[in-house]
């Protein structure tokens, strides 16, 4: 079933699974699985976050990050006729116009940066174009949503990193950031930013979702929210219609030009990562994932609902137009 809409996705952890499989001896997991999945799903832009697993949080964080950056460059070279890494906004436009998938490298949680702005600059030169200050845990820059009780805001270093990112042209990502950290960002930034994979707290209350007060602040900052399709963040029933309820709410608050997709497909990542690679297989695969929507090849399950719920122009903006334009403007 082919989706009629093209898709730009702001969050897929596939690099973690590809590296883990290659370390386990699988020859080409990207070409054998993920590339076909993306093409069948009509994906034209894919943000690839580099996440630091618990086993690598300390000294190994930067090393693991560099290995995933290298993996991204390797697969982009190997499949150059089908994908390419985008370093600038004009790259996004040229790559998609050529019929290839534009890959944007990101970091989810700033453990690899440590305490050095020089490392941040080096990561930018290596191709990183988006960065979140935290995952759920604490970093040297800020506190994640898992540390809400501390009341933590951005550290002095975190503020310096935000300023440096704006100078470099690296997009700031506020998904996973604590509420106080979020408001610190709002008071500090001079450029639009993104929530790469967050849904609406007023539809379903969850620490990983954004409240309407946060959405209004992002609207006023001309920023972008990419809705997360991970079932536990959406609430029952676990269907694409429920996911689109969140999207509809986001559009209602942010406007039709500031909502995209950050799908966070995780099942196939959990299925292949294990303790041997330092990434731990999820102990319970009975996750509340969306029915018939767990990987990119099933994208028509979502795009059909988008087209039924929204006017064609709005459906296209949410599916790919808004994120593609945002990245083209701000990389």
Structure description:
- There is one protein chain.
- With 331 residues, the protein is of the alpha/beta class.
- The protein has helices at 14-23, 29-40, 61-78, 89-97, 117-125, 156-168, 179-188, 212-220, 240-254, 267-272, 300-309, 312-330, and strands at residues 7-9, 43-51, 83-85, 101-108, 128-132, 171-173, 194-195, 224-227, 259-261.
- It has one domain: TIM Barrel (Alpha-Beta Barrel), CATH 3.20.20.140.
- The strands form 2 sheets. Strands 1, 2, 3, 4, 5 and 6 form a 6-stranded parallel beta sheet that branches.
- Helix 4 (89-97) crosses helix 12 (312-330), helix 5 runs parallel beside helix 6 (156-168) and helix 11 (300-309) crosses helix 12.
- Mean pLDDT is 92; it is low at 275-281.
Which superfamily, in CATH terms, is the homologous superfamily? Metal-dependent hydrolases
**Spans with pLDDT under 50 lasting ≥5 residues?**
275-281
Oligomer: single chain
Helix content: 40-55%
| Backbone shape | globular
CATH topology name, in short, is TIM Barrel
| Average predicted local confidence, pLDDT | 92
Number of strands: 9
Rg from Cα: 18 Å
Distance between the termini: 33 Å
* Proportion in β-strands: 5-15%
- Class from secondary-structure proportions: alpha/beta
The count of helical stretches stands at: 12
Count up the domains.
1
Order of helices and strands: EHHEHEHEHEHEHEHEHEHHH
CATH structural architecture: Alpha-Beta Barrel
Q: Class in CATH? A: Alpha Beta
